Amino acid sequence: MSKKIYPLQFNPILKERIWGGEKLKTVLNKSITSNITGESWELSTVEGDVSVIANGDLKGKLLTDVIDEAPNEMLGTAVHERFGRQFPLLFKYLDAREDLSIQVHPNDALAKKRHNSFGKTEMWYIMQADEGSEIIVGFKEDSNAQEFLEKVESKTLVSILDSVEVKEGDVFFLETGTVHAIGAGLVVAEIQQTSDITYRIYDFDRVDAQGNTRELHLDLAVEAINYHKLDTRREYLEEENQSNTIVNCPYFTTNFIPLTDAINISKTGNSFTVYMCIDGAFEIEYNKDIYQYKKGDTVLIPAAMDYYAISGKASILEIYIS
């Protein structure tokens, strides 16, 4: 296995969504075949949606199988000790041609009890924003379950939720329990715990091609919601050729790297690293081999890759577990 350690890319898992569009192709060069493609799952071990390696000696293998063969080399010693052989994060790009449903995700304890799953803490990096695009993140003021249910019943829930206009480069960190929705006109890079548990609260009374509405999960959502006003926006530095911290939480650390030159990277072997190319292009040099990446690419650096160099002109998100 050690001879096969190298930067790994994966076949995107493309998801049609009622709110999806075509920007994953026009903005991120994904090979979509539908005009309602809403998500590209870049790196996943969610059951039924496990990523397949797209490059090198391990091409065609499932990420889960490779982790099973060499958990310390792939995940890192600290990550393996904490999570076992389970890859703990999920990486996506999303294209919202229309508003997503208003939803909430449960915390670890609730998700474990109800679904035997992780909770879903996540962050959004806004890659592209049409003028006037907005997101919903939490409540305008502290609320409670009674007010929430009354507003849902009267179809005025949006009136008590916090809508924020966004632009390219904005970042939002959503702890579990945060009521949220990505608005129309946005392309988003999403980093989250490995979980596909979502409680849909309101879907703007939409129907699909067959005239059906999508299922809501109000009973489950009420207990999961954090009713306090929350500060979800994250400010960060943009020092060139440096790892500028955006989010540092128990589940993941995300840094922003404005790359204009070459950087030598040295790792301890405690955690894997993932790079999401947000703009531009860059390359990785490892063991005298060169690996090239462009906007919209996602690459997994196994924990055993303890020394390598990155170079180019790019904006990169760097993610690992501290």
TrEMBL record:
Taxonomic lineage: Bacteria, Pseudomonadati, Bacteroidota, Flavobacteriia, Flavobacteriales
Positions bound to Zn(2+): 105, 122, 180
Residues that span the membrane, as ranges: none
Residues in Phosphomannose isomerase type I catalytic domain copies: 10-117
GO biological process: carbohydrate metabolic process
The species this protein was found in: Flavobacterium frigoris
Keyword match Isomerase: yes
Catalytic residues identified in the record: 200
The Mannose-6-phosphate isomerase cupin domain, residue ranges: 245-320
One Pfam family it belongs to: MPI_cupin_dom
Gene Ontology MF term list: mannose-6-phosphate isomerase activity; zinc ion binding
Keywords per UniProt: Isomerase, Metal-binding, Zinc
Cofactor note: Binds 1 zinc ion per subunit.
Family matches, as InterPro entries: Carb_Metab_Reg_Kinase/Isom (IPR051804), Man6P_isomerase_Firm_short (IPR014628), MPI_cupin_dom (IPR049071), PMI_typeI_cat (IPR046457), RmlC-like_jellyroll (IPR014710), RmlC_Cupin_sf (IPR011051)
Name of the protein in question: Phosphohexomutase
Domain of life from the UniProt record: Bacteria
Cofactors named for this entry: Zn(2+)
